[in-house]
Design goal:
about 50% strand; seven-stranded mixed β-sheet; mainly beta; four-stranded antiparallel β-sheet
Protein backbone atom coordinates (compact mmCIF):
# COMPACT_ATOMS: atom_id res chain seq x y z
CA UNK A 1 0.00 0.00 0.00
CA UNK A 2 1.46 3.33 -1.10
CA UNK A 3 1.65 5.93 1.61
CA UNK A 4 3.16 9.40 1.95
CA UNK A 5 2.96 10.82 5.44
CA UNK A 6 3.87 14.42 6.19
CA UNK A 7 4.75 15.67 9.64
CA UNK A 8 6.35 18.66 11.32
CA UNK A 9 3.74 21.32 10.73
CA UNK A 10 2.49 23.65 13.43
CA UNK A 11 2.23 27.21 14.63
CA UNK A 12 5.32 29.42 14.43
CA UNK A 13 5.95 33.14 14.77
CA UNK A 14 7.06 35.21 11.78
CA UNK A 15 10.79 34.83 11.30
CA UNK A 16 10.76 31.39 12.83
CA UNK A 17 11.65 28.00 11.39
CA UNK A 18 10.04 24.62 10.85
CA UNK A 19 11.19 21.39 9.27
CA UNK A 20 8.65 19.25 7.47
CA UNK A 21 9.18 15.55 6.79
CA UNK A 22 7.52 13.23 4.30
CA UNK A 23 7.97 9.53 4.87
CA UNK A 24 7.19 7.21 1.96
CA UNK A 25 6.22 3.56 2.05
CA UNK A 26 4.81 0.97 -0.31
CA UNK A 27 6.95 1.91 -3.30
CA UNK A 28 10.58 2.55 -4.23
CA UNK A 29 10.94 6.16 -3.12
CA UNK A 30 14.41 6.56 -4.60
CA UNK A 31 13.11 5.93 -8.12
CA UNK A 32 11.18 9.20 -8.26
CA UNK A 33 11.74 12.91 -8.10
CA UNK A 34 9.65 14.48 -5.36
CA UNK A 35 8.20 17.85 -4.53
CA UNK A 36 6.50 19.92 -1.90
CA UNK A 37 3.33 21.81 -2.76
CA UNK A 38 1.10 24.00 -0.63
CA UNK A 39 -2.47 25.16 -0.64
CA UNK A 40 -4.56 27.76 1.11
CA UNK A 41 -8.36 27.74 1.14
CA UNK A 42 -9.84 29.09 -2.05
CA UNK A 43 -6.61 28.87 -4.03
CA UNK A 44 -5.01 26.26 -6.22
CA UNK A 45 -2.28 24.04 -4.89
CA UNK A 46 1.05 25.65 -5.75
CA UNK A 47 4.57 24.38 -6.28
CA UNK A 48 7.07 25.04 -3.51
CA UNK A 49 10.18 22.94 -4.19
CA UNK A 50 11.40 19.94 -6.19
CA UNK A 51 14.22 17.47 -5.71
CA UNK A 52 15.38 14.88 -8.22
CA UNK A 53 15.51 11.23 -7.27
CA UNK A 54 19.23 11.41 -6.52
CA UNK A 55 19.04 14.83 -4.91
CA UNK A 56 21.44 16.49 -7.33
CA UNK A 57 18.84 18.70 -8.98
CA UNK A 58 16.76 21.16 -6.98
CA UNK A 59 14.32 23.89 -7.83
CA UNK A 60 12.27 26.36 -5.81
CA UNK A 61 9.39 28.72 -6.23
CA UNK A 62 10.60 32.31 -6.32
CA UNK A 63 8.60 33.06 -3.19
CA UNK A 64 10.66 30.64 -1.07
CA UNK A 65 14.12 30.84 -2.68
CA UNK A 66 16.81 31.54 -0.14
CA UNK A 67 14.52 30.65 2.77
CA UNK A 68 13.49 27.02 2.17
CA UNK A 69 15.72 24.00 1.56
CA UNK A 70 14.50 20.70 0.17
CA UNK A 71 16.43 17.50 0.82
CA UNK A 72 15.95 13.74 0.89
CA UNK A 73 17.37 10.60 2.44
CA UNK A 74 16.57 7.67 0.19
CA UNK A 75 17.88 5.20 2.76
CA UNK A 76 15.13 6.44 5.09
CA UNK A 77 12.53 6.89 2.33
CA UNK A 78 12.07 10.43 3.58
CA UNK A 79 12.02 13.92 2.09
CA UNK A 80 12.42 17.12 4.08
CA UNK A 81 11.64 20.80 3.78
CA UNK A 82 13.62 23.12 6.02
CA UNK A 83 11.73 26.41 6.23
CA UNK A 84 13.46 29.48 7.65
CA UNK A 85 12.47 33.13 7.95
CA UNK A 86 8.84 32.15 7.77
CA UNK A 87 6.26 34.76 6.78
CA UNK A 88 2.51 34.85 7.38
CA UNK A 89 2.00 34.25 3.65
CA UNK A 90 3.73 30.88 4.04
CA UNK A 91 0.73 29.66 6.04
CA UNK A 92 -0.85 26.77 4.16
CA UNK A 93 -1.34 23.03 4.11
CA UNK A 94 1.88 21.53 2.82
CA UNK A 95 1.76 18.36 0.76
CA UNK A 96 4.42 16.03 -0.52
CA UNK A 97 4.08 14.62 -4.01
CA UNK A 98 6.03 11.67 -5.35
CA UNK A 99 5.49 9.17 -8.15
CA UNK A 100 1.98 10.43 -8.80
CA UNK A 101 0.93 10.07 -5.18
CA UNK A 102 0.01 12.71 -2.61
CA UNK A 103 0.32 12.80 1.13
CA UNK A 104 -2.52 13.96 3.34
CA UNK A 105 -0.86 17.29 4.15
CA UNK A 106 0.40 19.06 7.24
CA UNK A 107 -0.78 22.48 8.36
CA UNK A 108 1.69 25.33 8.79
CA UNK A 109 0.52 28.53 10.46
CA UNK A 110 2.79 31.55 10.68
CA UNK A 111 1.34 34.09 13.05
CA UNK A 112 2.25 36.29 15.97
Amino acid sequence: QVRLEESGGGLVQPGGSLTLSCEASGFTFGNYGSSWRRQVPGKEREFVAYISRTGDSLSYADSVKGRFTISRDNAKNTMYLQMNSLKPEDSAVYYCYCGGWWGQGTQVNVSS
